[in-house]
Amino acid sequence: MPIELREVSYTYAPGTPYAAQALKKISLIVRDGEFVGIMGRTGCGKSTLIQLAAGLLTPSAGQVFLDGEDINERHFDRNRLRQKVGVVFQFPEIQLFETTVEKDTAFGLKYLDWSGEKKQAAVRRALEWMGFDFEAVRNRSPFGFSGGEKRRLAIAGVLAVMPKFLILDEPTAGLDPLSREAFLELLRKLHQGGMTVLMISHDADALAEYAGRIVILKEGMLFRDGPAAEVFSDQEGLKENGISAGQVREMTERLRRRGWEIPCGTIRYGQLLEEIAGRWPR
Amino acid sequence: MKQLPVGLYQPGSSVIHRLDGSAKLLCLFILLAGVVHTASLPGYGIWAAFTVCLIRLAHIPPGTAFGSAARLKWFFGVILLMNLCFYGPEHPWMRWWIFCPSYEGLIQGIHVVARVFLLLVLSNVLMVSTAPLAMTDAMERLLSPLRLIGVPTDLAAMILSVAVQFIPTFFEETDNIRKAQTARGARFDSPKLWEKAKAVLPLLVPVFLAAFQRADELSLAMEARGYRTDRRVWKKKYPPYQAADWLALLLCAALAAAFIII
Amino acid sequence: MSDAIKAENPVPDIVKAENLVHSYAEDGRRSLDSLSLSVKQGEFLAILGHNGSGKTTLARHLNVLLEVQQGELTVAFLNAKDPANVWRIREKTGMVFQNPENQFVSFVVEEDLSFGPRNFGVPEAEIPARVRRALAAVDMSGYEKRSTHLLSGGQKQRIAIAGVLTVEPDILIFDEVTSMLDPAGRKEVRDTIARLHEKGKTVIMISHDIGEAVGADRAAILNSGRLLAVGTPRELFTDPELLHRAGLTPPLPVRLYHDLRGRGIRLSYCPITCGELEELLCR
């Protein structure tokens, strides 16, 4: 089930002195099973983009389709949208509010006509996906966990409805290195399990490692859209626009400039290691 | 920044901006006293002209100046209708069920709306042209006589100033949490009142927790920057009023007095 | 200063902690455990560790935001256990926090920057000059009248730094100040910190990003409230095993060096910056 944005524009506070156009005629299709990284400088419209894709904002112009249906049509079933598209906001740990982990994780299931067993199984699965032992945490208060754990709990609450489509806004911001790696591995597993992932991040190294496709926005318009290796190849072009292609790509560039014949699509750590080892000694 | 709450300070260097905060606040009170005592349509006309002059003097864009009042158009409509329909039952144009619209009612409605409208716009001019800290200083200055009876006016002013400072952040955060919970299936847009009420908890708990956390962090930062409530190291000396401040006060007083006496 | 004079007048320790113990909870779980550490005047010290390692607890001691429960602590040559010194220590140490938004007391840059000096009783007439100097130091001259809400993340954090500079402290403490910023903002703030250090401030930077600590004079690694290791970045960061124990990941060049070694490729030393690795590979 693809999500398609067709010539979507969005203006904040239209008709007031604060009116600001955040997106200008963006067209984008995200297909089943893709892992798309979205990049861009602060204020480029990337948060607006994912909120439009998730039906949390209504476009000022243009349409958003889920499975070929316009989600902003009056007759469109919003509940279906909520169940198919999970959204993890920046610092999602803030959205925890229930008295126990189990209740909080089950919050999104409230309006689904699933049986009690099915709901509990979904909660268990979501918590286990996020690396928790269901029995050990189900009756604990979500507020008694560390920052990184709370974030995983909050994400479990999004995953409980078993969305086909997962949208994340800077999910690793503020995590320490090991939590970050552990989280990205969990995300990889979800993706391999068939989930379509759309992730905003400034972390080019993480996107190079995990995302197959990179979309870059600039001032509300599409600036780049293509396979990660291709988009990050143009390191200079990205840098001029204040976007880093990551440390690995930076190292590749340094070596290329010194005469190493490493392809400029070398963006992952493993690739770089192979390239250097395979060409040594020069 | 999604939607800025109207009434925020906009830095500038106009005559109005440069007036002393407490003088401006006093002027506002005096003007409001005058507005409340206005009893004729031409009177409101004079006030409207005066207000427009103020807005021009302060270089405030009309959208900003009238924004907060314009947002209440439905409220004004209801007030006008209520007055029209229920106010003067002596000589109504007609009677139907409990409604008795009359000329007096219409006039009374216009009076109320005009007063509230002027009140909002004048306050807005003050808010937009006065820095929040200058505003809290002004309140502190006007309240300072209370210090004699042991009221910690500087503390109150500080709390107020910081609270005002956080309003935009608070709005933005609430909006984000609302969206996050909506995405999880919460129903805020449900037409059923009962579901709407039930949906408040997932919004309220995070909003409060976030506000507490912010307050906690801010208080640490303030303490680190030397703020202390036990002893005020910095004794504030208020600058004396300038000629412009006295002139503004005099002008406002004269205008208001004219309306009160007439 | 010639070496002879240097030897006679060694740089004094501007911060000295001995056997600091701290526990937030009644259960006695220690967030700082017999921690001893000193910082030389003018030094750039990076304090590293995963979340919950005790970094922030230590930082809050340095500004007496937390009282010393057990152990000894002098900051800016003042005994931190003496309640009479609290405000003098806070005047000598400026602390910048993670979230810039939660540090401002006013919408207007100039008014926010005046907050610290006013608290410490700086004469009103002197404040505008201090504000100007502080803005220049963070490369934001001319921002006096701007609204803090309309700045970028990096600019907000630089204003927060300027807000402590107006008090003119000797020691600057940065508690994960870049972790909420985008790459451009991070760079702005990192460059600002480096410049302040060059101008002679003692800098204590708390972080979990090793990349930010490579340029420090020394680094200290904390784990469960204890000092795991202290030394130059080169000494510490070239030891992946040590970093792993502390929940940190080695910089890219160190990782490559070790993985290449595993494949029989031996470079003459372990590089900690991309520039060094480049030189080694292109020799």
Tell me about this structure.
The complex is a heterotrimer of chains A (282), B (262) and C (283). Chain A is an alpha/beta fold and 282 residues long. Helix content of chain A is 39%, strand content 22%. Chain A folds into two domains: 3-245, P-loop containing nucleotide triphosphate hydrolases (Rossmann fold, 3-Layer(aba) Sandwich), CATH 3.40.50.300; 246-282, no CATH class. Chain A has twelve helices and ten strands. Chain A has a six-stranded mixed beta sheet, with helices on both faces. Chain B folds into two domains: 1-130 and 239-262, no CATH class; 153-231, no CATH class. The termini of chain B are far apart. Mean pLDDT of chain B is 81; it is low at 1-7. With 283 residues, chain C is of the alpha/beta class. The mean pLDDT of chain C is 92. A six-stranded mixed beta sheet of chain C has the order 6-7-8-3-9-10, with helices on both faces. Classes of the chains: A alpha/beta (282), B mainly alpha (262), C alpha/beta (283). Chain A binds chain C through residues 41-43, 146-148, 173-179, 181, 202, 242-244, 247-248, 250-251, 254-255, 258-260, 269, 272-273, 276-277, 280, and chain C through 50-52, 98, 152-153, 179-180, 182-185, 208-211, 247-249, 252-253, 255-256, 259-260, 263, 265, 274-275, 277-278, 281-282.
Topology:
The complex is a heterotrimer of chains A (282), B (262) and C (283).
Chain A: E1 3-12, E2 20-30, E3 35-39, H1 46-53, E4 61-66, E5 69-70, H2 78-84, E6 85-88, H3 101-106, H4 116-129, H5 134-137, H6 147-159, E7 165-169, H7 177-192, E8 196-200, H8 204-210, E9 213-218, E10 221-227, H9 228-233, H10 235-240, H11 247-257, H12 269-279
Parallel strand pairs in A: 3-8, 3-9, 6-7, 7-8
Antiparallel strand pairs in A: 1-2, 1-4, 4-5, 9-10
Chain B: H1 15-18, H2 21-36, H3 41-57, H4 62-70, H5 73-86, H6 103-129, H7 132-143, H8 153-183, H9 193-198, H10 200-224, H11 243-261
Chain C: H1 3-8, E1 13-22, E2 32-40, E3 44-48, H2 55-62, E4 70-75, E5 78-79, H3 86-92, E6 93-96, H4 109-119, H5 127-137, H6 153-165, E7 171-175, H7 183-198, E8 202-207, H8 210-213, E9 218-223, E10 226-231, H9 233-237, H10 240-245, H11 252-262, H12 274-282
Parallel strand pairs in C: 3-8, 3-9, 6-7, 7-8
Antiparallel strand pairs in C: 1-2, 1-4, 4-5, 9-10
Helix pairs in contact in C: 4-5, 4-6, 5-6, 6-7
